[in-house]
Amino acid sequence: MEGGGQRDSGKRAAEAEAEEYHCHDFEWEDLRAEVEANPAFSYHLTPFPTTAATSQPPPSSEAWRSFHRRHTSGKFFKERRYLLKEFPELLNSKDSAKVLEVGCGNGSTVVPILRSSPSMTVYACDCSKETLEKANEIVCNTKGVHVKDRFCLFLLDVSKETFPDWLFCKSCRNSCANDVDLVLGSSNSSMIEKLPVFLRDDQCCVGGIDFITMIFTLSAIPFDIMPATLERCVSVLKPGGLVLFRDYGLYDMTMLRFLPHQRVGFREYMRSDGTFSYFFTLDAVRELFRASVLVELNLEYCCVISVNRKNGKKMQRVWVHGKFQKPKSC
Q1: Which Gene Ontology molecular-function terms are recorded (predicted)?
Q2: Does the reported pTM lie above 0.70?
Q3: 30 within domain boundaries
Q4: Nearest Cα to 294, choosing from 219, 224, 227, 206?
Q5: In a domain, 279, yes or no
């Protein structure tokens, strides 16, 4: 009864959020026409010289680690409650479903997923030990979220490293010899350990992943290494499993704020702190996921007007929203 009550509570929260959330406040094509007609934005549209790209310093994972160290305050946390409306598959999945959150940050995506189902298991990775510890603290202390034996954080830079063997759906390579640093989901500790987790004595792996969530993660790495990153993610996905994707879209407000000297490639930008951002078109996302042998189920722009509460200024936000499935024959 308790589990059913928690599930109902999660659904009610998602329905309440749905009443407040809009994803088509304006048409992307209208914004595109406006931007491309404005001479002030012309530098965003021009091809990027190859020589200029090679002269730029490559983005570093350390920049993101430094970013998270500067933003460890709980004030920086904002739960992504819209997630369950945009990806209702998470609410309607079987109780034993396993979710992998790639680039979990401070846990803003993890919280609504764990709250939605009392038996869903979430594995979450990030390149920053500090942000994993903060995520562990936030998630374990969030009211209504029970993490016992169903929340595991592990340290991994998905742009460079392969996933640990215990996560795969196929028989584990080298009998789980490839250990990685794990932050164990426990309300009493956030210590770093080197242990496989959630495995019975007769198991060599957790059996693969039903859902992979990539929420504002892929845009943080250079476009030319995105294909290899996606292939690594797909390798731990079960046949028939889904990749749930949301990221920055072309002509989003944050893109238009970048200055000419911050361009480091075509639709690629670097902030003053060294963190990186790419802005996607639907075609770019479609080709990336198709190359990873995933089937497109849904792909669209989400165009949202956000209002700054302090000054009342309206901002046009553009995100790319997609769902992709691994063929059942894989």
Answers
A1: RNA methyltransferase activity; S-adenosylmethionine-dependent methyltransferase activity
A2: yes
A3: yes
A4: 227
A5: yes
Helix residue ranges per DSSP H, the chain: 2-20, 28-36, 50-55, 61-70, 83-86, 89-92, 110-116, 129-140, 226-235, 253-257, 282-291
C-alpha–C-alpha distance, residues 271 and 131, integer Å: 20
CB half-sphere exposure, 68, CA atoms < 13 A: 19
Q: Domain containing 142: what range? A: 2-325
- Name 68's Cβ contacts closer than 8 Å, sequence gap at least 6: 105, 106, 126, 128, 130, 131, 134
Cβ atoms 21, 85 nearer than 8 A: yes
pLDDT in tens, the chain (330 residues): 334 444 444 444 444 444 445 578 999 999 999 999 999 999 999 988 776 555 555 555 665 566 555 655 545 456 777 888 899 998 887 768 999 999 988 888 898 888 888 888 999 999 888 889 888 988 888 887 888 778 999 999 999 999 988 888 655 444 443 444 455 444 333 333 444 456 666 677 788 899 999 999 999 999 999 999 999 999 999 999 999 999 999 999 999 999 999 999 999 999 888 889 999 999 999 999 999 999 999 999 999 998 888 887 889 999 999 999 999 876
Tell whether 79 is covered by a domain.
yes
| Tokens encoding 42 | 């012309």
Distance (Å, whole) CA 240 – CA 318: 29
Report how many domains make up the chain.
1
The answer to whether residue 330 is domain-embedded is no
